[in-house]
Amino acid sequence: MKVSIIKIGGNLIEDESVLKKVLQNFARLEGAKILVHGGGKLATQVSEKLGIATQMVDGRRITNRETLDVITMVYGGLVNKTIVANLQSLNCNALGLSGADLNSIKSVKRPVKTHDFGFVGDVTAVNSEMFSLLLNNNITPVCCAISHDGNGQLFNTNADTIASEIAIALAKNFEVELYYCFEKKGVLRTIEDEDSVITDINTEIYQALIKENIIADGMLPKMQNCFNALERNVSKVFIGSIDMLSEENQLRTTITL
Ligand SMILES: Nc1ncnc2c1ncn2[C@@H]1O[C@H](COP(=O)(O)OP(=O)(O)O)[C@@H](O)[C@H]1O
Ligand SMILES: CC(=O)N[C@@H](CCC(=O)OP(=O)(O)O)C(=O)O
User: Fold this and answer.
1) Hey, where's the site called Transition state stabilizer on this chain (predicted)?
2) Which domains are seen in the chain, by residue range?
């Protein structure tokens, strides 16, 4: 059986009308599928409203107790439930999950090296039996960027990593395709030129693109997650816009080893 894992980034979640279109494309996708969502931008906005400062290091949010409360409310509550309700309206039988729900994703606190990230977890286990059970019953899991340690502690975990870890775990039993959807059509050669999509990137090209400063910021950890997934038996990995799910010949970046 084939399973498609779709991760949607923060810029697709922020705007209600964009999110609706994203979810229509997702709902139309045939076969077993899992949606993973971020929401980092929204968490930053809500933190600001509450007077909580945001600090990011290497694309990861430093998550103190107050920030953990915000991300739990925003990712686990507002964003996850809004997505599930919209998918239900599109006849997609969605079930919203944090990593604690059905023990879906376990993690340990990220070890302190140069920085203490606080309540940020590195994934240690994905409950693939549970995901299989849901998928075999035509239930579509909707996963947010929250994991847990099994002792009652929730952790913030980057959504790209949640998506690749689920993909890797399911690759043991399924043919898995991983789609990273964001606001651009793919990895761009010139960030201002929306159509300058680099259609194929392997590890060698990736290293060259880093040297040329073409790939930077959030794209660096995203691509690391892509290679990590491919190295651990995920069949196909793509980066592109949500249109890559529905339109043939749509520009997108295909990642290979
Ligand atoms: N070459 C590139 N092509 C496209 N985006 C790039 C590139 N280099 C850096 N980026 C940045 O990476 C961002 C995507 O990473 P991130 O914000 O982590 O994604 P997401 O919204 O999916 O969480 C883009 O919004 C863009 O600003
Ligand atoms: C530890 C960590 O940094 N977690 C991320 C999780 C959300 C996320 O990944 O959202 P996007 O996909 O929208 O960026 C964060 O809090 O920003």
Assistant:
1) 7, 222
2) 2-255 (3.40.1160.10)
